[in-house]
């Protein structure tokens, strides 16, 4: 993340106990190496958010001037890079805090599906790729990177810091239709899959590819819901690094939305109908509506210069 990301680690990284555990989880040589690297780089939970966003902006400038041809469709690649940045931020947050209590595994599982199904489509066909030269290979690379970050984050929550995970708070979907909490993701997965089967564009003229891409788009629109639900259930004080994760996901949807507001008419059905494009655009905006007040509390925390973002104990986010 760069050597300019703040000073020392304050009290330092949590140290393993005599059983080789950190933060109540299972530590490995890789875990220790990652935490040592972050410490050497001076990355800390007290870093000013603008430093982190500064690194992000540098990457976007490189993406635009080095890998992009400057076409409007580069917004899709920028959105993808922003999602990758979001999960990298969350991963860093986990290793700095040695705790997964602020993380929803359900959201991570849903995003794994988002990236996997999108890659299933874009590796087979070109219909939903950016028009500019990032669509040749760079967009694929960024999406694979996002999938890798998400998978490693999920592994870290499942294994490395398992005992700090709080399933009682990460209980979105539990009890709906008699579902156990462990299967709460189905409350989101099933409707998105059904909607994608019924309403999808046909840019690739391939049913599996078109439905896979559409499913990933619908799913991404609401995959953050379990994370917001966790915040509301048990965590009103959120570290800024964790807040960066949610904000970056929302920012990615802003870039996606800007592109599809201009291009949604290209998402037509097999008979030329415009309805799939309209539904796609609504799904893009839906994500932003869900987290609009989260943006407000984040902006207020930035203004106050604190290391935590404070949410109300109840509110309109979920």
UniProtKB/TrEMBL annotation:
This is ER lumen protein retaining receptor. Its main location: endoplasmic reticulum. Pfam families: ER_lumen_recept. GO terms for cellular component: endoplasmic reticulum membrane. Keywords: Endoplasmic reticulum, ER-Golgi transport, Membrane, Protein transport, Receptor, Transmembrane, Transmembrane helix, Transport. It is found in: Endoplasmic reticulum membrane. GO terms for biological process: protein retention in ER lumen; protein transport; vesicle-mediated transport. Belongs to the ERD2 family. The chain crosses the membrane at residues 50-67, 73-96, 137-161, 238-255, 275-299. The keyword Chaperone does not apply. Residues 1-13 have a biased composition (Gly residues). It comes from Triparma retinervis. One of its GO terms (molecular function) is ER retention sequence binding. Residues 1-24 are annotated as: Disordered. It comes from the Eukaryota. It is a multi-pass membrane protein.
């Amino acid at each position: 993340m760069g050597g300019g990301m703040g000073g020392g680690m304050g009290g330092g990284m949590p140290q393993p106990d005599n059983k080789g555990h950190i933060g109540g989880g299972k530590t490995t040589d890789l875990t220790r190496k990652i935490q040592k690297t972050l410490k050497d780089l001076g990355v800390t939970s007290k870093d000013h958010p603008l430093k982190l966003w500064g690194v992000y902006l540098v990457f976007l400038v490189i993406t635009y001037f080095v890998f992009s041809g400057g076409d409007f469709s580069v917004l899709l690649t920028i959105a993808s890079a922003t999602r990758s940045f979001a999960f990298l931020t969350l991963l860093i947050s986990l290793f700095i805090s040695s705790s997964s209590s602020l993380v929803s595994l359900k959201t991570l599982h849903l995003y794994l599906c988002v990236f996997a199904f999108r890659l299933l489509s874009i590796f087979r066909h070109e219909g939903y790729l950016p028009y500019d030269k990032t669509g040749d290979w760079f967009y694929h690379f960024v999406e694979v990177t996002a999938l890798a970050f998400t998978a490693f984050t999920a592994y870290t929550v499942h294994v490395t810091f398992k005992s700090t995970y709080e399933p009682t708070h990460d209980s979105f979907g539990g009890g709906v239709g008699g579902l156990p909490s462990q299967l709460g993701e189905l409350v989101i997965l099933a409707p998105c899959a059904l909607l994608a089967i019924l309403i999808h564009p046909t840019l690739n003229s391939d049913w599996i590819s078109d439905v896979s891409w559409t499913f990933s788009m619908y799913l991404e629109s609401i995959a953050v819901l379990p994370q917001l639900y966790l915040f509301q259930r048990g965590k009103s004080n959120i570290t800024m690094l964790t807040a960066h994760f949610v904000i970056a996901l929302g920012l990615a949807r802003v870039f996606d939305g800007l592109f599809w507001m201009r291009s949604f008419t290209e998402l037509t059905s097999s008979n030329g109908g415009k309805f799939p494009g309209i539904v796609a655009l609504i799904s893009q905006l839906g994500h932003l509506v869900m987290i609009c007040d989260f943006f407000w509390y984040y902006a207020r925390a930035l203004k106050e210069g604190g290391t935590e973002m404070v949410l109300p104990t109840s509110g309109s986010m979920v």
